[in-house]
Amino acid sequence: MININNVSIIGTTAEIAETLKNIFSTPQGTVPFDRNFGIDIGILDESINLAQGKLTVEFARKVQQYEPRVKVKEVTFITDDDNNLIPKVRVE
Asked: Residue limits of the IraD/Gp25-like domain (predicted)?
């Protein structure tokens, strides 16, 4: 399972990291007047490998749209103690 609520953000200020965490942990379609904000959580229903690829693209696209002060350089996935995959997003 991929856990998008505990995304690790590397390479930026605390303010921008908090903004990115808000984007990444918000399900798309739940923000009134901006239904595109957030991540398409339907991606999480895909197979792990496919979901990882789609989330990488989704993170980069949403950062470009909602936080243009940084760009996604790399997205990796680490395993926590419960065998959940946690996205680790490096920005610059």
From this structure: 14-83
